[in-house]
């Protein structure tokens, strides 16, 4: 029987007692005892869950960490991205940033693209290079017809890349490259791969009960895999983020990431943080923020207030990542209406990332000189290691990717 269900049964005698004429002191004693019982039951439930997760992942852990040095080699100058990594839907921008008559130039897998809205309001993504004289199209404008106009000679392109106007000359049959483009849940997605796009896009919305408070885009001088390695690691927080969110955090004697053997998500212990790597480049986390630095036994879900974070690490070039960051809260909705609040969220996000960049840039420098940044994986590296094993299997065209359902 579920432990929490048992706890709800135990509350019935107490409800009956309250209806009787017990004095206040006895009621308080009963409440204290009941609270203690519920805490113990919740703790027992957590121990059971921990044990089940550990048993389910025992074989996987043994395999993963038997010969770690032979499992992962991330060293040497960053190579061009493997074509298999392109065969996914990638979010490029937040819908709110792509207003009518605006353009957003981006790099995706070392190629220049530009996104804009057509006359019907739907977004499109075309190569950011005019077919005529290779002028960057984003230097031009989007006209009333929903076509992007090259600033050099005025050639105009639709969202599917077709040139529909060539001033001062005869119209030729010209079309520039475009990517399948779709808008869903406040994000603009593209499919950069050669394989046919999958029919459905993943959902990146926060859990029920959360409201989005901030959406931020940053361009970072880091290879996207190194950034993912960093985001999938919590253990560095009390050492790196000593001036921001982890200020004053204690350093636990042991940190674990508990997850099923086939999973890419789980929870940190003793930190109250749930985390997931979602292929190909997304990290989702939910953190209890009432006492986020407290080393205790409670899950993130047992707290009353949380922050949910989405990080999308788009591979721009060999040493550049376009980061889309979405932050959501399940409390204090009034914060959304405070003027300039988004500027404050951005400032704080930049402070946190700058703490990380100092270290990750150093890793990237060493890696480019031949050092392996995954030399000695230990137990708390589990989620980051699984990301690397997943990516390695994808790039070597494995018939079945590891840690997938």
TrEMBL record:
Recall the taxonomic lineage recorded for the source organism.
Answer: Eukaryota, Viridiplantae, Streptophyta, Embryophyta, Tracheophyta
| Pfam families registered for this protein in UniProt | PaO, Rieske
Q: Which GO terms describe its molecular function?
A: 2 iron, 2 sulfur cluster binding; chlorophyllide a oxygenase activity; metal ion binding
- What superkingdom does the record give? Eukaryota
What's in the keyword line of the UniProt record? 2Fe-2S, Chloroplast, Iron, Iron-sulfur, Metal-binding, Plastid, Transit peptide
Where does the Rieske domain start and stop, copy by copy? Answer: 89-190
Report whether tRNA-binding shows up as a keyword of the record. Answer: no
Q: Quote the Gene3D superfamilies the UniProt record gives.
A: Naphthalene 1,2-dioxygenase Alpha Subunit, Chain A, domain 1 (3.90.380.10), Rieske [2Fe-2S] iron-sulphur domain (2.102.10.10)
Kindly list the GO CC terms recorded for this protein: chloroplast
- Write down what this protein is called: Rieske domain-containing protein
Q: Which subcellular locations apply to this protein? A: Plastid, Chloroplast
CDD domains on file: Rieske_RO_Alpha_Cao
Q: What is its main location?
A: plastid
Cited PROSITE patterns:
RIESKE
């Amino acid at each position: 029987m579920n432990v929490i269900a048992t706890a709800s049964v135990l509350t019935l005698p107490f409800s009956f007692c309250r209806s009787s004429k017990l004095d206040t002191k006895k009621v308080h004693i009963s409440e204290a005892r009941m609270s203690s019982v519920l805490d113990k039951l919740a703790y027992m439930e957590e121990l059971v869950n921990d044990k089940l997760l550990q048993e389910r992942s025992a074989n996987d852990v043994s395999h993963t960490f038997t010969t770690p040095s032979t499992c992962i080699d991330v060293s040497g100058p960053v190579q061009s991205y493997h074509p298999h990594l392109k065969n996914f839907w990638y979010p490029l921008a937040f819908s709110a940033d792509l207003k009518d008559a605006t353009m957003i130039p981006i790099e995706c897998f070392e190629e220049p693209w530009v996104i804009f809205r057509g006359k019907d309001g739907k977004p499109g993504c075309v190569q950011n290079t005019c077919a005529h004289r290779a002028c960057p199209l984003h230097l031009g404008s989007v006209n009333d017809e929903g076509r992007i106009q090259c600033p050099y000679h005025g050639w105009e392109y639709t969202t599917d890349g077709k040139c529909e106007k060539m001033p001062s000359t005869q119209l030729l049959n010209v079309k520039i490259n475009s990517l399948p483009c779709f808008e869903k849940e406040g994000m603009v997605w593209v499919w950069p791969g050669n394989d046919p796009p999958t029919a459905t896009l993943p959902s990146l919305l926060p859990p029920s009960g959360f409201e989005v408070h901030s959406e931020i885009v940053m361009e970072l001088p880091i290879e996207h895999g190194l950034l993912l390695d960093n985001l999938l690691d919590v253990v560095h927080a009390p050492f790196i983020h000593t001036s921001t969110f982890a200020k004053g955090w204690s350093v636990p004697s042991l940190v674990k990431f508990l997850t099923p053997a086939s999973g890419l998500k789980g929870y940190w212990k003793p930190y109250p943080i749930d985390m997931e790597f979602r292929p190909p480049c997304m990290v989702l986390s939910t953190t209890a923020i009432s006492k986020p630095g407290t080393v205790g036994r409670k899950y993130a879900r047992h707290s009353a207030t949380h922050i949910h974070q989405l990080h999308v690490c788009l591979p721009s070039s060999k040493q550049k990542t376009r980061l889309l960051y979405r932050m959501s809260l399940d409390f204090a909705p009034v914060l959304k209406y405070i003027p300039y609040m988004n500027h404050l969220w951005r400032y704080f996000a930049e402070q946190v990332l700058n703490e990380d960049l100092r270290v990750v840039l150093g890793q990237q420098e060493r890696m480019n000189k031949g050092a392996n940044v995954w030399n000695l994986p230990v137990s708390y590296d589990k989620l980051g290691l699984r990301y690397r094993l997943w990516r390695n299997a994808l790039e070597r065209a494995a018939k079945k990717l590891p840690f997938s359902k």
